[in-house]
Write a structure and sequence with these properties.
Elements (H helix, E strand, L loop, with lengths): L12 E8 L2 H12 L2 E2 L11 E5 L2 E8 L8 E7 L3 H10 L3 E9 L3 E7 L5 E7 L14 E8 L2 H12 L2 E4 L9 E5 L10 E7 L11 E7 L3 H10 L3 E9 L2 E7 L5 E6 L5
Parallel strand pairs: 1-4, 5-8, 9-12, 13-16
Antiparallel strand pairs: 1-5, 2-3, 3-4, 6-7, 7-8, 9-13, 10-11, 11-12, 14-15, 15-16
């Protein structure tokens, strides 16, 4: 991923936002948990889309759900210089477009796609809104992974759409239970990783759909879990120690799922 605030290479996670039933409750929850402040909201017809700021730098965004049938969820967006071309590759690789590329004022062009396993993600062609201005420090985005039941088709999909190089993470039950992504031309190692594919196994509820999990860095994972619980959230996994740091998966007080990671870069 490019340096936060600069130009993001195609395929880099460049932005994350959450769609929530109660925007004000979301501001209270995440503002208290991560120390975010918030910019002025967009008009109601644009979901009152609100930029979250960490020490004045863009960290993420929250918006109000326009339709109760839509999921309460975090979405990760991947950078592209041409949303139309990326959308065509999504279709050619076996994915679907939920929303076609559409300009968002002068901010950029967005589209929403679904991979062959059913996980949704965003495409972002930047204009004035390049994406994250801060990453990898407490309160900021640090990592994303797609959680799926469809190993082979999903791996082939992301390799075709974004040209990712892939290598297995630390050996486990199966060497490729976690497949780490790197950008085209980058060394295929953990230092250059931009995300990963993980498996939904029998430890998950049978009704758990495929999804992207967005992680935010924290200085103390256990303290973050306790702070989320005080605000009405809860841990659904962990805290536990993973190869890249101590982590937990949480749901907020409205049901949106996200992760927190206490990594050396966040210490």
């Amino acid at each position: 991923m490019a340096a936060a605030g600069g130009a993001f290479a195609e395929g880099s996670p460049c932005w994350a936002d959450a769609m929530l039933p109660d925007l004000e409750a979301g501001r209270r929850f995440y503002g208290g948990l991560f120390g975010w402040t918030f910019g002025a909201p967009a008009p109601p017809e644009r979901g009152s889309y609100t930029i979250a700021l960490l020490d004045g730098a863009r960290a993420a965004a929250l918006s109000r759900k326009p339709d109760g049938r839509l999921p309460t969820a975090w979405t990760v967006h991947f950078a592209t210089p041409d949303a139309g071309a990326a959308a065509a590759r999504v279709r050619a690789a076996g994915g679907q477009l939920v929303t076609e590329p559409v300009p968002v004022g002068r901010a950029g062009t967005t589209a929403t796609a679904v991979d062959p396993g059913g996980a949704a993600f965003g495409l972002w062609q930047p204009d004035l809104l390049t994406g994250f201005e801060v990453t990898g420090r407490p309160g900021a985005y640090v990592w994303t992974e797609v959680c799926t039941r469809e190993k082979a088709p999903v791996d082939a999909f992301y390799a075709r759409v974004f040209g990712y190089g892939m290598h297995p993470a630390a050996p486990g039950r199966e060497a490729d239970d976690i497949m780490v992504w790197t950008l085209p031309g980058a060394p295929e190692d953990d230092e250059h990783a931009v995300g990963a594919r993980t498996m939904i196994d029998d430890t998950y509820p049978v009704e758990m759909p495929a999804h992207f999990l967005v992680y935010f860095a924290v200085a103390d994972c256990d303290a973050a879990v306790r702070a989320a619980a005080r605000r009405g959230g809860r841990a659904v996994e962990g805290p536990d120690d993973a190869p890249y740091g101590r982590r937990a998966v949480l749901v907020d007080d409205q049901g949106a799922r996200f992760g927190v990671l206490e990594a050396p870069a966040a210490a």
